[in-house]
Specification:
Strand content: under 5%
Largest sheet: none
Number of strands: 0
Shape: rod-shaped
Distance between the termini: 96 Å
């Protein structure tokens, strides 16, 4: 049977620093505070399953924190998690997306009069000069951040283009007689 997991004997400075972290927590509990409580409780003889019950944590998490503290000391209280998946869209790509979205499709050789998200993404993916692999939702987010929107109906295209006014005057169908 494996030995119970316990924190190594604490030095005075470590114990004082842990106590300061726990007492200074206030109402806002952070990961650092929870980890300090786990370490101090283990140092005072409380077993990991009991610490887990008191904190509402998993016993394996408590054991992992204790092992990390034994190996790394106070640095174990501040885990350095990765920032997630690396960005696939660079600043250059984003600038190209905005430039393409503000250019008329006919100017870049596309056979339509206005962009939609689907058409723009297709153009970006199949562009030979600067291909940008992007999903529609991410393209929508980038365009939204730059204040660019596409018309939902071709008749509204003039309302979305800066420097152009919408249709003034009678309806395109002409005047209607009222009976």
């Amino acid at each position: 049977m494996a030995r119970p997991v316990r924190v190594r004997p604490l030095r005075e400075q470590e114990d004082a620093a842990l106590l300061a972290i726990v007492r200074g927590a206030g109402k806002q509990e952070t990961i650092r505070v929870r980890r300090a409580v786990m370490v101090r409780a283990s140092a005072h003889g409380v077993k990991p399953p009991m610490i887990a019950r008191l904190l509402g944590a998993d016993p394996d998490t408590v054991r992992d924190v204790i092992h990390a503290f034994n190996a790394n000391g106070m640095a174990a209280l501040d885990p350095h998690w990765a920032g997630g998946r690396p960005r696939r869209i660079t600043a250059e790509d984003e600038a190209f997306i905005v430039q393409a979205a503000t250019t008329r499709p006919k100017a870049v050789g596309r056979p339509f009069t206005h962009w939609s998200i689907r058409k723009l993404v297709d153009y970006l993916v199949h562009n030979r000069v600067h291909p940008v692999v992007i999903e529609r939702e991410r393209a929508r987010q980038i365009l939204h951040a730059h204040g660019i929107s596409f018309p939902t109906h071709p008749d509204l295209e003039g309302d979305h283009r800066p420097g152009r006014r919408g249709q003034d005057g009678p309806d395109r169908a002409g005047t209607r007689a009222v009976a």
